[in-house]
Amino acid sequence: MIYFDKVSKIYSDDSAALSDVTLSVMPKEFVSIVGHSGAGKTTLLRMILAEEKPSAGTVFFESVNIHSLKKHQMNKLRRRIGTVFQDFRLLPNKTSYENIAFAMEASGRTDEEIESDVPHVLELVGLGKKIWSFPSELSGGERQRVAIARAIVNQPDIIIADEPTGNLDPVNTYDVIQILKKINELGTTVILTTHNRGVVDSIGKRVVTMENGKIVRDDKSGKYSL
Amino acid sequence: MFWVNIKRVVRAGFVNFWRNGFVSLSSILVMTITLFVIGAVIFILATLGSSLNDLKSRVDVNVYLAVNVPEEEILSLKADLERLPEVKSVGYISSESALESFKQRHANDQSMLDALNELSENPLGAILNISANDPNQYETIANFIKSDSGLSSEKEAIVSKVNYDDNKTAIETLSKIIVSAQKLGLTVTVVLVVISIMIIFNTIRLAIYTARDEISVMRLVGASNKYIRWPFMISGIMYGVVAALITLGIFYPLTYWLGTTTANFFNGINVFHYYITNFGQIFGVIAGSGVVLGAVSSFLAVRRYLRV
What we know:
The complex is a heterodimer. By secondary structure, chain A is of the alpha/beta class. Chain A is about 35% helix and about 30% strand. By secondary structure, chain B is an alpha+beta fold. Helix content of chain B is about 75%, strand content about 5%. In chain B, helix 8 (about 165-210) crosses helix 12. Classes of the chains: A alpha/beta, B alpha+beta. The interface of A and B includes residues 74, 105, 110 and 111 of A.
């Protein structure tokens, strides 16, 4: 469903964020991308969201070249991708409910759908009681769960999680990973980046290891090995 | 879906306006100052305009006619003058009323009155008092009267004196003052308005700068550019509307207080009456400027962060 064909990204002459990366992700797969900071994990994810353009090579989403899309097609593509980040990226002036409702409004859902789905999805991530809280009134773990709820509410084909547990304590980390696993079991592709050994080992699925912008290992059922 | 989207962006605009209270407040304050400047310019131009009109109407040229000219001839000369496109109006002062006002002017000067009584008949001729549309046109009118081609020889004979030459310097100076006052007024207006627009644009740009991360998040969840832009524009429009209401509110007591002063000092209009009678137009200009400034500034400011 996602295919990187010999993708390189060069920011300046002497450093390449990605060099000649070829990687394919199948539907319903759970892929963990691991590596040190600066290994190119985030750049790889930003390519899928078309926030970065490759210097060479092509990125395909279901046989469509992502970077050839027009703006409004891009918006449609982004609605099929749920994103979760280390820094949560919630809208600070909106409540949990409104943050999730915004993503639904953006993809053109009706008011009835929003009213029924938002409480449901917040219940799913265990935040049924914090519907009307603003992000500043939530703990880190709670904020990340709102972000996950927002990512899954439009039933995307794929969830991209960039270091989602980077700012969380072990208990919240465990919860967040369990939620992602559950989403994956329900049929959504998940791409996760992390440098947390415990997280990778507990998932027990495909692990792609990156180093200096290159893929150095790709194990079907891997462990963290850096 | 169209109406649903309209409802959603309007609601989002209102909610943003309310929740970003401090940002809204400071934007409204700056916008109020801007609109106040625009409003003040309106009042100053109106006062200046009416004072200038007043001055202009006081400038005139008198045509003194010979004594004992029959009234028909005077009236026919008056009609000739009124046909000139430069002439606004011609007043006729008969020799009797000229004498009357002369007596009044010298009511305290007994020797002058005695001298006048010595005379058996009225020594004063009739006067035609000419007002022009524009002070610059007096010279043309005066020349017309004096030139051979202007009037027929019989009519020329009845004109004893045109006092344009006496007034010439005064009229020319006044014309210059009026023209430069208008130029100055226009320049000051343009400069003030441009400065105000730049200030308001920068304020709103700063307000939206603080929201740039939000805009990137909105893009990330797949919101279309219009859907991101409109709530900001609605907020901008609301800044304009609220600021316009505050400005109009401030002008009410202010013009009331200044009304008699301007009426006496400039010999012109009472700004309070001007405000009340032209309220519709003033409201339109101030509220319209506020709405347009708010919407355009927001549009331009958000556009920066919507570029991929």
